[in-house]
Amino acid sequence: MTADAWPGAEQRGARRSSITYTVRAPLVRWLQQEAARAAADMGTYRVLDVGCGIKPYYPFFATHASEYVGVDVVPGPQVDLIGGVEHLPVGDASFDLVICTQVLEHVDDPGLAVRELRRVTAPGGRVLASTHGVQVYHPSPNDLWRWTHAGLGRLFADNGDWGSVSVQPSSGTTSCLTMLLGIYIDLILRKARLPLASRGAVWALNGLGAAVDARSATLRGVGPGTLHANYHVVAEAPSAEAPSAEAAR
Ligand SMILES: C[S@@+](CC[C@H](N)C(=O)[O-])C[C@H]1O[C@@H](n2cnc3c(N)ncnc32)[C@H](O)[C@@H]1O
User: Fold this and answer.
1) Helix crossing, 195-214 with 173-191: angle to 10°?
2) What is the pTM of this model?
3) Amino acid 241: pLDDT
4) If you measure from the C-alpha of residue 212 to the centroid of ligand 1, how many angstroms do you get, rounded to a whole number?
5) Residue whose CA is at the smallest distance from ligand 1 atom 7
6) What DSSP state is assigned to residue 221?
7) What CATH number did the domain enclosing 98 receive?
């Protein structure tokens, strides 16, 4: 199957008129950058996609992936293994890149989930995880958690001997607010059977949020008073030679 025909074109396309634009557009850019960085650092790599759903981001990694395995609690045509992130049905240190996008908010025990992500990551490998700061309730099949950048950093630091952990907001405060406004305007205009008006309003709000945030480092940052729709986490497993941050303490 070609990359264009692979399921998830909507997620990869991340249209500005979509209520998920604030989350998906930065996620797409970040994963593409991380796929290229991993290729530069590792050459080929083995990928585990945890909570994979339809594996929408497989095409970004396909060129350099010697293996791309999807695991999910819900069966589906793209799911290779059935299992939860808290008890992954794969061996220790068996993947170089472990992707876990928009899943942690749905799991019963996030600490156990992060320990499992660490267990399956090979020395020198990395976990790429994304999850919400602020979002409306969206069970899949549950919806249990939201984070701040500091809370997410603590979650990873407390649950694994990582070499490094970085947590970055995916977009700024204004984008978060315009996303929420767009979600409710979309709800109202769709009820009023005005889907075109909804798309126009959401397109304008998404553009406004991004434009305002682009002018302010404060709104893009993580200082007091900021609000973020989503976070991107890169957690690196120490290489075989390097001591972990925990061991070095
Ligand atoms: C919002 S979807 C995200 C799907 C995909 N990762 C993406 O970014 O488009 C959440 C996914 O996590 C899966 N999921 C929920 N709880 C899970 C768990 N405990 N372990 C593994 N996957 C889980 C759901 O079945 C669903 O496919």
Assistant:
1) 170
2) 0.95
3) 76
4) 32
5) 101
6) S
7) 3.40.50.150
